[in-house]
Batch of 2 targets.
Target 1
Amino acid sequence: MKKMRIVVALGGNALGKNLPEQYIAVKETAKAIVDLIEYGHEVIITHGNGPQVGMIDSAMSLFAKEDSVQGKTPLSMCVAMSQAYIGYDMQNALRREMRERAIARPVSTVLTQVRVDRQDEAFLSPSKPIGKFMTKEEADFAREKYGHIFIEDSGRGYRRVVPSPKPLEIIELSVIRSMVEDGDIVVCCGGGGIPVYAVSEHLKGVSAVIDKDYASALLAKELDADMFVILTAVEKVAINYKKENEQYLDTITVAQAKGYMEQGHFQKGSMYEKVDACAQFVSSKNGRVALITELSKAKDGLLGLTGTRIEG
Ligand code: ADP
Ligand code: MG
């Protein structure tokens, strides 16, 4: 197989719902990623944080209630915290897995800030699901009590949604690029990156959660990756999802992907952004390929045996 530069985006939902689950989940994830590294590919890892950033936000809100000196923790800070503890677990799991296979490569996590537009209309209509899945009653209660906004998420329950502005610029890009060129394994753009906007010469955090699929596609473009892989909870993308005539997709073109998006086959907040991000990456330069598959199928997906591939 040709040696490729691959950006691999891991789903926040595939990282477990709590610390013990995360420890186990990242071990499995590390195996899947080191399989790709073992083939000689250059791999850059990004990850989501939907469940985790919601958990941190809830914890910090409770803390603020107990200790009146503590103000509200902005979501940008919660994203930074999620990057740190997920990156910490991830880099150690990768290190361990590589050592076991006698691969000597440095691995580190880069706290990544991503610039957004403060005027992005996403601030007016929250769309990104975070935190745990709730029953309708729990969601109604939280809506009353905290003024949060909820949506029904792909038939799996109700989740709080927050603004999700488009990523415009990866602030730490040159550092990430240098590390990749040096042969390091880099975990970056966690949770879509810490959302910041420019105030004259400076950067200021903003309460939002950038979609990790869009941030990862931007990273893949900027690093001139050959392939963009999204590892999630489903083996393939479906049209007529969860309907009688559901059909799983193998290889589709960008034009087909756009057609299906327009016909409303992919739920916003979950699959829509993945397909859209892949289409953006693939159409940005000839020869670029994207793949969406389940975490445990990464290797088979790369060999073309499963997953949904999006090509030019
Ligand atoms: P991640 O944490 O990996 O970003 P998401 O939950 O955001 O995962 O998105 C993946 C989920 O999207 C799947 O597990 C599935 O429940 C849902 N989904 C919505 N529409 C589709 C579709 N058309 N085909 C496959 N999965 C879909
Ligand atoms: Mg997601």
Note: The chain has two domains: 12-27+43-125+163-225, 234-312.
Target 2
Amino acid sequence: MNKFDSLSDWQNFRSRLKGSLGFVPTMGALHDGHLSLIKQSLSDNKYTLASIYINPTQFNDTNDLKNYPQQMDKDIKILQEIGCDFVLTPTYEQIYPDNFNYKVSEQNLSKLFCGRSRPGHFDGVLTIVLKLLNIVQPTKVYFGKKDFQQYLLVKNMVEAFFIPTQVIGCENIRETDGLAMSSRNFKLCPEKRKTASLFYKILKDSKNPEEAIAQLKKENFKVDYVEDCWGRRLGAVYLDNVRLIDNIKLGELI
Ligand code: PAF
């Protein structure tokens, strides 16, 4: 696997690369959810690049950024083992020469759900994704549908700006107890990790969002939102200040 710390080294290399390139953007702390995206990319494309960059502009809470899990050496090893071709690990100075003076701002979807409680979050996400797409120039880019709102916003941005990349959404990958895989799960203590599995079960088994909210509160989750939209039931909760999000297709409800 080739590791690129420098954007210009990558861009030189990219200009000579022939054949399809799949791209999986990540903030590291890789888990099986990321690996399923990488596997999909490996099977769809001649080459696959993963990026590891904890993007500060999408964190509206400095503590959340400070506590975000980091394991660069382990992540590089995981990528090597799975057969990823390239990894890009840029710095803030390289990515934000303008110090986030220019940003992408969506006016509708980004204000709902996660955007309501995390002001500016999606400006940061869309800006970094646009920058990375311009730098990587992939044939296809892969996003997990756990972050369903993020997936839709990126898909719409790619259309709005005529970016010649296909956005591929991949279904949620879950732990055996149903909890959606997330780097944030690493932050839960064993007791809360056990409670966390109820999030998925309650979303799935409740008749409507109101019932889900009541059940979640009973189990001591702090509920940000549960709502039905886009044929899905979407939810965000906190357990000990760890934010968890999830969604399921409404057809999967019992
Ligand atoms: O989903 C994520 O991990 C991040 O939002 C992304 C897409 C890598 C942008 O920083």
Note: The pocket of pantoate is lined by residues 25-27, 55, 58, 125, 128-129, 147, 150 (CB under 6 Å).
